[in-house]
Amino acid sequence: MASIMIAFAHATIMANTALTIYGDGREEMPVWPPAVAESASVMDLHREYGNIFESGNRNAASHLWASFLIDRQAQMTQSRFEMFFTGFCAISGSPLSPRDFNRYQMTLPFVGGGESTGYMYYCCWPCVCDTNDFIRVDTLNVTLADGIERTYHVAVIGDPCERPEALSARCKLLCRLRLLPLTLIPQSLVRETALCLISAATQESRLYSLSTREDQLHWSGMHRRVLFHLNRGGYL
């Protein structure tokens, strides 16, 4: 089964069912040159940092990287789509270059029962602990430039924003030393602080990531968005 992990903003997540992503206005999405260029690298994605993170803060916001790519899925080949998902940490949102030293094998619970094993890229080892604490695996349907719909295994968290009452909880932001109710934090920052929201919510969360080849399971974190992607077999 082809698989990748990703984080989204425009998908309704249902346990035990495949997800079909309809990026809002996807048909009118302007062409992103790196999606269709003869050659590209994760650096092309990193150059979009200012467009993806309007506040300049990417902490725990890999779902915004994923949303950017998923909204442009119809422009990319399978290999191009997967390659871009190796360009950031699924937990911290840090831009990175995929290497053997930052690639970890993970076994996570599958939504509905069982487990799924694959490899994820990280900026640092503490993000592995957050993965074990918060992420689950589910399935996702994605249609790329060839028009073929593929099903991916994805790393997921539940949507904390479905519990607005949890926003009154106090949350220690990574970039601040004091505790603040989430209702007092600018919404642009709240949207970019998925793991902070997850800690404030008690319901199970889900984050998604995606991959495409049968021998790979790539994960991207997803808070209604995709984060990273997991390799189930060899190397990228």
Protein described:
- This protein is an alpha+beta fold.
- It has one domain.
- The protein is 21% helix and 17% strand.
- It contains eight helices and eight strands.
- The protein has helices spanning 33-36, 42-46, 49-52, 62-70, 78-84, 126-134, 187-191, 194-200, and strands spanning 4-5, 103-109, 115-121, 136-143, 149-156, 170-172, 179-181, 209-210.
- It has a two-stranded antiparallel ribbon. A two-stranded antiparallel sheet has the order 2-3.
- Strand 2 and strand 3 form a beta hairpin.
- The protein is globular, with a radius of gyration of 16 Å.
- Residues 1-26, 172-180 and 188-236 have low confidence and may be disordered.
Annotate the secondary structure layout.
Elements: E1 4-5, H1 33-36, H2 42-46, H3 49-52, H4 62-70, H5 78-84, E2 103-109, E3 115-121, H6 126-134, E4 136-143, E5 149-156, E6 170-172, E7 179-181, H7 187-191, H8 194-200, E8 209-210
Antiparallel strand pairs: 1-8, 2-3, 4-5, 6-7
